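Try it yourself: sequence plus adenosine monophosphate, in.
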Amino acid sequence: MRIVLLGAPGSGKGTQAKLLVEKYRIPHVSTGDLLRAALAAGTPLGLQAKAAMDAGQLVSDEIVLGIIRERLRHNDAKKGFILDGFPRNIIQAQALDGMLHNLNQPLDAALLLDVDFDALMQRLTGRRTCENCGASYNIYTNPPRLDDQCDRCGAPLHHRADDNEETIGNRLRVYDAQTKPLIDFYRNQGRLESINAVGEVEMIFKRLLTVLEPIARGVRKPKLSPPPAKPARGKPAAQAVAPVKGKSLPVKPAKIAGKSPRKPIPRVPPKKTLPKKAATARTASKKSAVKSQSRTKSAKSPAKKTGGRR
Ligand code: AMP
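Structure, out:
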């Protein structure tokens, strides 16, 4: 099964991915984890990615696509995978479609983990992970028995460097601006499945399975799977989103798909204004028409003869 996990930072993609790995025995491919590992190993690629990661911005598509291309070549990915944190923008999604199209292995589903803004903030600021065994905790909702110590293996717990308020603000902004459009991208492909991701981890996992089981059994297929779109020409996708200064978090709560679909913005009919030059010409012609009408009543529609462009 080939799955993309979509959702804002803190929506629980990593936690659910771990459970999905156990259930379906397919690898969890997290670009965030791969980048952090490259950084920890001090590779040139990791060092290149560091600045963007520290600032909560996206690492360049070139680096990320290289990592993914390489990872999907591994044998364990032949029977499927769970992509977490990738794709993060339309360019990456189109590139992924291209890769999978060439392998004749289209995506089965894009699962959106739907969480409201307040819950996201609590999850992100309270998140702690064990670097030794990978167990995750949250100091607010799922605290370890002993402060900063893993219940499972006793190793010290780690607070991710980019889980501070300023970087979180940037990551959520980047999500809104660049990753959220993927919801429509996959909806248009008939692959989007939206899951309410607020509540107990096990409950959310059950909801995921309700959607995934029919797909795993081959009972349900994506409604349509068009050939991959060619990458957009012209302007490359903006990587940087203005960073948040100071401690406040001017991040608008994202309207989450599935709960309250965004109302279409009403179209205001365009005012019938003319460009300045044309408008002046028209006024002039109207004036001259009035003049000529008053001079000779027999003149036939002078405005049309002398009128400016419409
Ligand atoms: P994550 O663990 O998925 O929250 O990712 C942590 C950081 O790694 C992000 O804030 C980005 O800087 C970078 N990153 C992870 N995945 C991607 C991606 N697909 N494209 C660009 N940057 C990424």
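One thing you can check immediately is this: The pocket of adenosine monophosphate is lined by residues 9, 31-32, 35, 52-53, 56-59, 64, 85-86, 88, 92, 162, 171 (CB under 6 Å).
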